[in-house]
TrEMBL record:
This is Myb/SANT-like domain-containing protein. The lineage of its organism: Eukaryota, Viridiplantae, Streptophyta, Embryophyta, Tracheophyta. It comes from the Eukaryota.
Length: 58
């Protein structure tokens, strides 16, 4: 057994936990974004209109 294999075995559960946490955070962020989308997008689009959409094009 190599040292790398031992490290991989030890980190396996950590990676699984991190993946689960990341998935949970992603779901929470999506829910928050859905709730705030209507509130935040209005002013954002107004700012883009003032600056000009053409400025974004290469």
């Amino acid at each position: 057994m190599t040292l790398e294999k031992t490290i991989e075995d030890g980190l396996g559960p950590c990676y699984k936990t991190l993946a689960m946490l990341e998935e949970g955070v992603s779901k929470m962020m999506r829910m928050l974004m859905e709730e705030k989308k209507e509130d935040d997008m209005g002013p954002c689009i107004e700012k883009l209109d003032k600056v000009g959409w053409a400025a974004q094009d290469p």
